[in-house]
Amino acid sequence: MSRPLIGRTARRLRMEMGLTQQALAARLGISASYLNLIEHDQRAVTATVLIKLTEALGVDLAALSGHAERQLEAGLREVLSDPLLGLDAMPENEVQAIAASAPNAARGVLALYRAWRVAREDASGIALPSGRRLLLPNEEVRDFFHERGNHFARIETFTESLGAELQASPAEMNHAIAQRLRQKHNVTVTVTAMTEADRRYDPRTRELWLAESLPRESRGFRMAFQLMLLEARDAVDATLADTKPSTSEAEQLIRIGLLNYAAAALLMPYAPFLRAARELRHDVERLAARFGTSYEQVAQRLSTLHREGARGLPFFFLRADTAGNVTKRFSAAGFPFARFGGSCPKWIVHHAFATPGVTRVQAAELPDGAAFLCVARAMHGPAPRWGEPPPTHVVAIGCDIARAEEVVYADGLDLVAARVGIGLSCRLCDRADCRSRAFPPLEHRLRLDANEDGASPWRFDRKDAPR
């Protein structure tokens, strides 16, 4: 099992609230020195103190899971392992100590590393033809959603209020949204043949065109997005009030992401969706059928259920294409995605491409012992024209293995015997017996022998092992 990081998480939440150790200790009824030991994970947290912590910090137990801290550790470990930095192997306890004692400095290291990678890529001729430096706004957007737990209370409140006005069942929602667009905004919706775009809106003529190749649930989502574009401005502005994106591109991408979030929240209202998710044990296909939405829309919505006092099961969400590019990712379940490279070839996400339309399940265990129930499904999008391959991607969700019994996909699966050992990426994984390894690990020396072929394509000794 992965290490508990309750103390470190409590420290982060305390600092976010602007509380001193003395102030929080007083609320908990313990000494400041004892709280200091707890925050550095040097003392176990009793059940009584744990309950008081949730009350004092205004969170529930799920918020003390430590997934943000583990993600920071994983990113720092990945950065410090880059051979181009010329560093000696960084002991695991040092990585943990840096992330625990100086989390803001650790995040600064990650930010500097991202900037250095951009500069290095520019120097290698990967800059834009104009010579302008790549700013990677997509990474900034991912950080924005990750740091906020992929949940936005103001937007949820707004969409619930709007849903109460529409008073439409899931089967009637598309019609209700189209009617709202027409009656309140004088927007007409036309389904027509389009190959260059799936949705096009003309603000001057108030016309919304949708591609006829889109399935019903995709048309509904794009109409919901259009309605949010017209009505959710205040909720989005309030959500962005304390944010200062570094570029206009990043700000626009964040706004579009929040509008997509709002569209999903309108189609799958928080409370009814949470009840249905629990009732159906997070069966994505049945949830999609109940709410008239797509498999991907449901999977992503499952990763957003983090309302204080009414949290859903924490899921990570990921979408990847056939080239291995991750186009979306959220890690509410604490899965430590690699930030700067590919992922493990043994992970079910990559195997799902072989069986489009079929749900694949895997009990995956990381080298640190953390284990996750992973569910992946590959699907095709509409091809723009005959002869062009349709876009294909995999949608994956997952949760901590300790809560797998709450998910229908765990039925009949031996959660211990069926575990598959995976890593974050080949460069960061020290599993010596992996036949799927593409690269040797960064922190180990290669062991080369022309007289013998091993089970793994790469054999190695630990970097600090004696020769």
Give a quick rundown of the structure.
With 467 residues, this protein is of the alpha+beta class. It contains 17 helices and 13 strands. The strands form 4 sheets. A 6-stranded mixed sheet has the order 7-6-10-9-8-11.
How many E-type strands?
A: 13
| Element string (H = helix, E = strand) | HHHHHHHHHHEEEHHHHHHEEEEHEEEEEE
Secondary structure category: alpha+beta
> Roughly how many Å is the radius of gyration?
24 Å
Low-pLDDT segments: 122-135
How many helical elements?
A: 17
- Please tell me what the overall shape is: globular
User: What order do the strands of the largest sheet run in, or round the barrel if closed?
Assistant: 7-6-10-9-8-11
Q: Termini, distance in Å? A: 33 Å
What percent of the residues sit in helical stretches (DSSP H or I)? 40-55%
The biggest sheet amounts to: 6 strands, mixed
Compute the average pLDDT.
83
β-strand percent reads 5-15%
How does the SSE layout of this entry go?
Elements lengths: L5 H11 L4 H8 L3 H8 L7 H11 L9 H14 L11 H10 L1 H24 L10 H11 L5 H14 L6 H13 L2 E5 L6 E4 L4 E5 L4 H16 L1 H7 L8 H20 L2 H10 L4 H8 L3 H8 L3 E2 L2 E2 L4 E6 L4 E6 L16 H4 L7 E7 L5 E10 L11 E9 L18 E3 L22 E3 L13 E3 L5
Parallel strand pairs: 1-3, 8-11
Antiparallel strand pairs: 2-3, 4-5, 6-7, 6-10, 8-9, 9-10, 12-13
Helix pairs in contact: 1-3, 2-3, 5-6, 5-7, 6-7, 8-13, 9-13, 10-11, 11-13, 15-16
